[in-house]
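Internal tracking record. Fields below are filled automatically when a chain is submitted to the structure queue. Please do not edit lines marked as system-generated. If the sequence contains nonstandard residues, flag them in the REMARKS field before resubmitting.
Queue: standard
Priority: normal
Entity type: single polypeptide chain
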Amino acid sequence: MDALLQELPVHQSLARVFASIGQEVFWRALVDTLRLLVPLDNALVAVMTAGQAPQLLIDFDSKGRPDDQEELAGYTAGMYLLDPFYQTATTGIADGLHSLASVAPDQFLHSEYYQSYFRSVVGEDELQFIINVEAGVLGLSLGRSTTFSASEQGRLLCVRDWVLAAMHRHVQLLPPQGPAAEAVVGDLATLLDRFEARLTVREVDTARLILQGFSSKAIAQQMGISPETVKVHRRNLYHKLNVTGHGELFALVLRQNRDG
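SYSTEM-GENERATED OUTPUT FOLLOWS
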């Protein structure tokens, strides 16, 4: 009985979640409930569809209030193309609770995107409850400035099934939505093609994988070439773009994304 009473706030909050399914306050109720299980700094709900900019539905800061959308402007303008959750979601992902570690490239935590952009917008770590819907993939992102522990992920896994069921039912009860906005950038290759450096297809692919956080070995595996050939492509694209490393490459792409 004592243990049950300790969990009373969770049960009461859970009741509010199910009472709000199909209503505007659903996401707030769900995030508030999950926050009782694990500390969160931010939460974001988005629909991800291949070839389109993610549709951001609602964004909460650490106090559960809708956050300022300005800091996400760069994301919807093109930085989403480097987001491992977007990349995985638009190439096929199962319903479930997914961790950043499970979807990110091997060197993602060392990428300039993670160091200079992701950490300031999302935090050190991210988990997502994901469901496949008619419009694409719906993700509830949970971000935090510290890494989620194994026990914290375990708590969320314990509630995964009812969270996914509630998300599915909420989407089913929503009125039909109009057509999604057109993507500002179709893919990363389109963004890189804005430069007048005349990169080859292989160089564009190499730049894309570098920016996403793949190591030279992983790039070679992805492209079916040798690591030495990857080094050649890397050297050539750096020379054509007049940059000295992946940090300057990211800064150049970020500037082009903002100016474009």
